[in-house]
Amino acid sequence: MDADIKWLDDPTIFRVNQLPAHSDHHYYGDYAEWQHDDSRFVQNLDGQWRFKFAKTPQERSQGFYAADFDSSDFDHIAVPSEIELSDYAQNNYINTLSPWEGKIYRRPAYALSQDDPEAGSFSSGKDNTVGAYLKHFDLDPALRGKQIRVRFEGVERAMYLWLNGHFIGYAEDSFTPSEFDLTPYIQDKGNVMAVEVFKHSTASWIEDQDMFRFSGIFRSVELMAQPVTHLEDLDLRPRVTDDYQDGVFNLKAHLAGEKDGTVKVVVKDAAGNTLVDEQVPVEEEVTVSDKLIKDVNLWDNHNPYLYQLLVELRDADGNLVELVPYRFGFRRIEINEDHVVLLNGKRLIINGVNRHEWNAKRGRAITMADMTSDIASFKENNINGVRTCHYPDQIPWYYLCDDNGIYMMAENNLESHATWQKMGAIEPSYNVPGSVPQWKEVVVDRARTNYETFKNHTAILFWSLGNESFAGDNLVAMEQYYHEHDDSRLVHYEGVCHTHDYSKQIPSLDKKNYLPAGGTKDYRDQISDVESWMYLPPKQVEEYLQNNPDKPFMECEYMHDMGNSAGGMGSYISLLDKYPQYFGGFIWDYIDQALLVKDPVSGQEVMRYGGDFDDRHSDYEFSGDGLMFADRTPKPAMQEVRYYYGLHK
């Protein structure tokens, strides 16, 4: 198969030769490797790559992926990093519009007509910058002779991959890992990996988040070898009994490779006591079912108690060939008959924030130090929950939330704001994904990938379909996917509030501001287990809660923290004491999106926000609405948050 640039224009093509998503577990050769977090099966490719930038697809380097290509005129770029922050392209911050609005006429493929594929929309786009990456490497000796795959943790926005001149695959979905099998073409020495990254594709319509619009390989790249027998996917289903006293442990594992040998499954408590010890033959699918663990420690924000799982894969001679560790907890989230959200049988209150991944110098290419700093800030300020707005985060963040008892709303990489809201008005004439058939599979795949990657994380209490993408049959399909695959969590989505007539539940609400002209199908009964609304004023939240609410209520975004904000927080918090169906929300947002640059006049380092880079159009200082400045210095508003969130710890 050859690569085809026209895939950029086609919403039905979003992965080519990409391996299926699977659990995010680590694997090691023995216990010493685990203790040092240094697996013999992993080779990191981060660092300096050769790089060539093109302003348009037509100007890109042709044939650069050939094994004998002369790249002497290529520059160097760090991986991971953002192309724009390496001074190749224009920084641009936008909230609700598409970057090309008012410059290039585009509409989403098939949205206006089933006869309109918008051919050439991005493959010939004059605004579609391209980065050509090259990496020369030798395979580490420990990886040689094995099945080899490569994992890209995050690439914005569409990528083509070659190895040693051979086309490997294509991927979209910027914020979830993309894995490809390299085995047929990998060499022990002298490998040339080529990656072509396009800033825009049809994915750009559904990645219209409130953020700086970057591009490039902005997360880590790793090679991974497969042991002779390998745990490909791990599915943990720890349940809590109805009396909230005991736990029931369930495991399902999908194995690849040789089928000789044994699988040993061990579960230990924090004191090292063995609670489960099962050994079964290697099969393609291995299960351990309904193992009762008495008097479990239930996981929550106050006591993030985790149990240690160890899966040993041994060959027919008893030699350890792979060790898979995983920490998990027992917790139970549900909605009772009074429409109150319960965690472990007790009312749940979310003292949350929305959190973009951000570093003032590196953009979204954040570091582990950034993540651990954020966890410390959460604890210091009584923040117990986080919404991964509006995409999946780096994998270590989910482990940190498990370890520290941070309740997670794990959001899909989906926002299509510009397709349904124009100049502040609801006007979904070319809304996607909506109910457009050609846009169904791409968003269901994003739900699948989000679920499969992160399904074992105790901290995740809610799956979120995405953000500000209106409603439609395709979001119903996403909702159905989660409910069919996971009965241990709730599903959230806010956009359905725009399709429902709330005149009885919230009499003071002016429905013309929420229902599109002519009305639309009401999706409220099909989407979202909870009532979710952004920035609904406290008085109208109270009206909803006073009128026999049929769903518990939360604010997935509230207290928009721009400027001297957060002063009215007490009006929301007081509702928690009056209405058990109200369970809090997530402040918008945690950290400013601003960049630390050297001012050419003063020579001093200064923060620059949207519009400060001569980017037009822009939403300007709207990028600065966090509780923290972009350098992670708390703003005065954080004192308000610490006080009010401390009332319901």
CA distance, first residue to last residue = 56 Å
Integer count of domains:
3
Pick out the low-confidence regions. none
- Topology, number of strands: 38
Large-scale geometry: globular
CATH class of the largest domain: Alpha Beta
**Radius of gyration in whole Å, from Cα?**
25 Å
The CATH superfamily of the largest domain is known as Glycosidases
> How many alpha or pi helices?
8
Strand order of the largest sheet: 33-32-29-28-27-36-35-34
Which CATH-level-2 architecture of the largest domain? Alpha-Beta Barrel
What is the third-level CATH name, the topology of the largest domain? TIM Barrel
The percent range for helix content is 10-25%
Structural class: alpha+beta
**Main sheet, how many strands, which sense, barrel?**
8 strands, parallel
Mean pLDDT: 96
